[in-house]
């Protein structure tokens, strides 16, 4: 079978080597390529996929929303999130899914165990946050708190969450067992801005970031320095790929092989 990832730019994507590691581990002859499609050329996406004879593909920045009008069907959760990262091509029909949120949640639970009774705070209210929160709600009994700089961002949220401003959440930071940063703050290593005052966080809290390049954002570094347990976005990337593979083939991926390959490649770069 043939798969691929569509994005712009795309040369740095780790998806091809990660998926090929999985195909090899399973003894499959599948292919996975990276296709650079600029926003101007995105109107030709149907032709591009047909020419490349893909059975399924991932979609990354900046096309996760622009793909939606080209789909024949969309999963309810991808529709709710408003973003698609996985397309299944079935009998010439395109079906869109989003595996980013479930990828984060599965990775988190595999690593840290059940989140049934945890008090969880998610920072940011964009697409990534919505995806993670809607999946996480299925695995926890507590109401999830979501904090964003501007509260108007919650206007189109249909989820039953505790919505707060970043300013207000500062006073209750010590009440959370897990804190997840989904904002891009920290992507840029030269910026030392921390999104919340970390001295207010409880010592037993697990602090997560969905970013994995850099390996430790300044936010995670500062939390680690304070003695808190930290968790970056690498597992999220691996598990979203594994979930995409399951959608395309109905088979379970070999997570460990994928993870090792990505870790080694990141070390090499
Ligand atoms: O959602 C994923 C996407 O499936 C693949 C990807 C990549 O190849 O860098 C990144 C994320 O957007």
Description of the molecule:
- This protein has 269 residues and is an alpha/beta fold.
- The protein folds into two domains: 131 residues, Rossmann fold, CATH 3.40.50; 132 residues, Rossmann fold (3-Layer(aba) Sandwich).
- Helix content is 33%, strand content 19%.
- The strands form two sheets. It has a six-stranded mixed sheet. A six-stranded parallel sheet has the order 9-8-7-10-11-12.
- (3R,4S,5R)-3,4,5-trihydroxycyclohex-1-ENE-1-carboxylic acid binds next to loops.
Topology:
Blueprint: E1 2-7, H1 15-25, E2 31-36, H2 45-51, E3 56-59, E4 73-74, H3 76-81, E5 86-90, E6 93-97, H4 100-112, E7 120-123, H5 127-136, E8 145-148, E9 162-165, H6 166-169, E10 178-181, E11 206-209, H7 218-225, E12 229-231, H8 234-249, H9 255-268
Parallel strand pairs: 1-2, 1-3, 4-6, 7-8, 7-10, 8-9, 10-11, 11-12
Antiparallel strand pairs: 3-5, 5-6
Rg, Å, rounded:
19 Å
Envelope shape: globular
Oligomer: single chain
Count helical runs: 9
Q: Tell me the number of structural domains.
A: 2
Name of the CATH first level of the largest domain? Alpha Beta
Task: State the low-pLDDT regions, or none.
Answer: none
State the secondary-structure class: alpha/beta
Notable traits:
six-stranded parallel β-sheet; globular; 9 helices; 269 residues; binds (3R,4S,5R)-3,4,5-trihydroxycyclohex-1-ENE-1-carboxylic acid; Rossmann fold; 12 strands
